[in-house]
Design a protein that fits this description.
Layout lengths: L25 E7 L3 E6 L8 E2 H7 L26
Antiparallel strand pairs: 1-2, 2-3
Length: about 80
C-alpha cells in the first residue's frame, strides 16, 4: 500500500476498509528502477511504489506461491509489463 493509505512508520492503515470504490481502474504502470512498479489509478491516485517482492507475495498463482517457481521462465517480461 502507498504512503497515503498506510502510515509509513507504524504500518497502520489510514483508510477505512471497504472505502475504495470497485469502479477504480488502473490507468498506467511505470517501472521504478529494477525493483518495483508504480501504478496510476482512475481516481488520480499514484503515490504507491510496489516492490516486485511485495507483488509476488500477493499473487495466488502456482508460479508465485512459495516454491512454485522451480526454474526461470523461458521469456522474462520487461519491468512494468503484464504479459501472460
Amino acid at each position: 500500500m502507498c504512503a497515503a493509505c498506510v502510515d509509513e512508520m507504524t504500518g497502520a492503515r489510514k483508510i477505512v476498509h471497504g472505502s475504495i470504490p470497485a469502479s477504480i481502474e488502473r490507468n498506467s504502470v511505470s517501472p521504478v528502477g529494477n525493483y518495483a512498479l508504480q501504478f496510476g489509478w482512475s481516481d488520480g491516485h499514484n503515490t504507491g511504489i510496489y516492490s516486485f517482492e511485495y507483488l509476488r507475495a500477493l499473487c495466488p498463482c502456482p508460479r508465485c506461491l512459495p516454491g512454485g517457481l522451480k526454474e526461470p521462465p523461458e521469456k522474462v517480461p520487461s519491468p512494468g509489463s503484464f504479459e501472460v
